[in-house]
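Deliverable D5.2: sample structural annotation.
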Amino acid sequence: PDEGIMMTVRSAEYLGAQRLVRGELSDQTRVEFLINGDIDLETGTMRSIKAETTHLHAFDSEGKRLMETAL
């Protein structure tokens, strides 16, 4: 079964109904995503993440959105 990708949690900011999570993959790629605010993640822990590709948005180092075919 697909268990997702492992990442290190760098921060998890509580926003009420949601939580903004910032993390880093093993190749040092940075990721940010929103999750349910009830889920608590500790900074520095390793977690497995996965998402439907229809919910992903990728950006380059200058903040410009990458084409969907790059995903």
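Annotation notes: The two ends are 21 Å apart (CA to CA). Strands lie at 5-14, 18-25, 30-36, 46-49.
The annotation will be released with the project's public dataset once the embargo ends.
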